[in-house]
Amino acid sequence: MAHKKTDTVRDLLRADLLLEVTCAACRRLSRFAPSDLAGMYGMETRTARLRWRCTACGGTAVVLSSAKREEVFPRRPPPTPPRPLGG
Ligand SMILES: [Zn+2]
Predict the structure, then answer these.
(1) Ordered DSSP codes for 23-85
(2) Distance 82 CA to ligand 1 centre (A)
(3) How far is the CA of 52 from the centre of ligand 1 (A)?
(4) Ligand 1 midpoint to CA 14 (Å)
(5) Cα separation of 66 and 22, whole Å?
(6) Alpha carbon of 1 to ligand 1 centroid (Å)
(7) Average pLDDT for consecutive 10-residue bins of the chain (87 residues)?
(8) How far is the centre of ligand 1, averaged over its atoms, from the C-alpha of 22 (Å)?
């Protein structure tokens, strides 16, 4: 798997990746859309420079990773066409 550059919010946005933040203490996983991060911190912010606090245990030590949006939120299959009642 080719290593993609995912240092900044812009990189995540370009690669259509979600930022995953895992609490080192309790393993709680939070995911962030880069578009939200861009609004809060700006496009050039390096994700490693952000400060995180776990909402579950208050821990500040986290492990950062990223995930393909498609794998986290798969596109819904098309709706099945309605079938006639009775028949
Ligand atoms: Zn935690």
Answers:
(1) ETTT--EEEE-HHHHHHHH-TT-BGGGS----TTT----EEEEEEEHHHHSPPPPPPPPPPPS
(2) 46
(3) 10
(4) 29
(5) 10
(6) 30
(7) 75 95 96 95 94 94 93 82 78
(8) 8
Tell me the whole-structure pTM to 2 decimals: 0.78
| Span from the CA of 33 to the centroid of ligand 1 (angstroms) | 20
Instruction: Using DSSP, state whether 15 is helix, strand or coil.
Output: helix
Q: What pLDDT is recorded for position 1?
A: 44
> Ligand 1 mean position to 37 CA, how many Å?
20
Torsion (CA) 26, 7, 11, 3 in degrees, nearest 10? -90
The pLDDT of residue 23: 97
